[in-house]
Amino acid sequence: MSFHQCPNCQEVIKYKTKLTSVFFGYRPIKCESCGTVYEVDEKFRFILSLYTVLIPILIAYMLSAMMGVLHTRWSQVLIVLVFGSAGVFYAATKVRYRKSLQQPMEEKDEKKAK
């Protein structure tokens, strides 16, 4: 089950927010309404990296070795980029987040801070 809404305030987390998080190295997501920070679960980082790195490289290798389809390096790079991009889009749908242990501090009163 993937992360669709904030458990605290039930705010819906957009696919675009999850996609930018996955694309830029699993950056934490901050809920816009309640300010809670969520980060990608550690065990899913490795699993999702397989979709974006290892599987596209294996597909390009198998296509070039078995079928002889890809004769040049440029075509192999293109196949890796296409399948890698598809892996990022897929990973954004399956990524799981957990509440970050380091939440931002809220300032209760600006006068006390000064």
Automatic annotation (TrEMBL):
The chain crosses the membrane at residues 46-68, 74-92. InterPro entries: CxxC_20_CxxC. The keyword Transmembrane applies. It comes from the Bacteria. Keywords: Membrane, Transmembrane, Transmembrane helix. This is Cxxc_20_cxxc protein.
